[in-house]
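To make this tangible, this section ends with a sequence with its structure tokens:
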Amino acid sequence: MKRERATDLRRLRQSGALGLFVGAFLLGYAVLAGLRPELPFADNESTLLLLGTGALVYGLVARHNERDYRTVFRPAGAVVIGLGVCIWLCLGVAFLFELISADAGTPDARPGYVALGFAGGTALMLGAVMTWIGKARETRKRSQFTRREAILAVCLIWLAASLVGGLPFLYGAGMAPVDAFFESVSGLTTTGATVITDIEVRLSRPLLLWRSVIQGLGGMGIVVLFVAVFPNVGVGGKHMFRGEVTGTSAEGLRPRIAETSMVLWRLYATFTLILTVALCLTGVNTFESLCHAFATMGTGGLSTRDGSVGGLHNPAAEYVIAVFMLVGSVNYALYYVLLRERSAKRMFQNVELRVFLALVAGTTLAITAMLYSGGVHDHLELAFRRSLFFVATTVSSTGFSTDDYTAYPSPAFGLMIFLMFVGGCSGSTAGGLKIERVVLLVKQALAQVKKSFRPSSILNVRMGRSVVENEVLADVAAFFLIYMGSLAMGAFVVCWIEGCPVPTAFGAMLSCLSNMGPGPFHDLPWRAMSDVGSTVHIDNFAHYQPATKVVFCLGMLLGRLEFFTIFALFVPGFWKR
């Protein structure tokens, strides 16, 4: 057995060396093709970048691997098979919508049906192969699925899901591979950034529905869903759950992680259904109500309209979506407590929730005053509605829009940047640093200031009545440092590739890391946008180069998995025995 294992690892390292060579060659050729368009396959620069990056990552992992991690392909394969089934379900649901309420103003749906059919079949075949690879190497009990394997499984699941999720756009919308991958990553991470500039012309109903569904799947988490559907993964399920759930801790709502996952998804599905019905009652058609419900509860922000929610021209729908964006920004554990105890008292005793509500109320009133007094909106109700929506979409990291935010006063724009950093509550579908972390950072800083003139005092940082352990405080400080470092490094790389101003790169990278979507400062003039003019406000990522879009995809995944899960793979000790 040991001899066979040594042989397998030797073959794995040899394949890793080949992967490094192929990856370096493809990436080098892609860079050269960008400089010399006359070279063969220069039009497929984005494909070369994706293939080269994948080969290089595989080579690095396989070359330095001292453990056999192929068992992680089994859960990843199961998720890919599940996505294939979801794609085919979308095909069926979209066909029913077309039969019941055909809309002559929408693009021809037939290419979308074909794209979903082929994409679903590809996903099922790929998932079957991955499951077979993992099952063939699974010689241990499932309960011995280690923490390292769980971390690797979470990363592999999200990478595979992002690739599979982009297939319908690749087949049915004529998008380049990098663009299809970007759109898929944006939907699954609920970022809401898009590279599609003509949604109502380019995407038919089947593709619009799939674009909305991936936001719903990514909102609560595909790994959380996997653990809920396959509760027999044992201890590995607990490690995978912690690798994806947001916040400073991942305390279970129920004794078992599988039960916790199922509770979360039931709450999430219930809110989505309620929102769909509420939007229908406001006059939005059933198809768009369903799509916007997925995008709202997942805090994704990818709309069916080029003008986002503003394109609906429905004030009542704006209020409903704004309220449910805030609902999605609250810790779902508090909703479970509310249902279990039939009382809101304990729910509103939560410090994070009270800070969140105070922040939303304060910024909404402040921006309402700015818009009304500054003459941006002449009617007080309109100023309040646009301000509430603006605050809700920003703090929840949804990214919907109803207004031209570039016309807002500079202080309102500054509040937008602040809310993008802060984000929603821990355990919610929102992005950003999270309210809980910000509160702990502030309290820790105040404690250190007090210690400067009372060095002998022992000051505990509390969250409510509970004393926060030093390990949690260290985790929060490390998260903040990694977040700011990733933001700075990402902005530098974007500036280097694009030659754009620092504010443009900063705003775009902040949007991706915070899973916010629309990036501020896109309207500044720079060479990649020279074809559309320097005075046009652009709220999408279509005009960035393929290499930059790959960087943004990494930023979105880092923000969704909260850095530690992905960065662990780059620590050499992770791959050693």
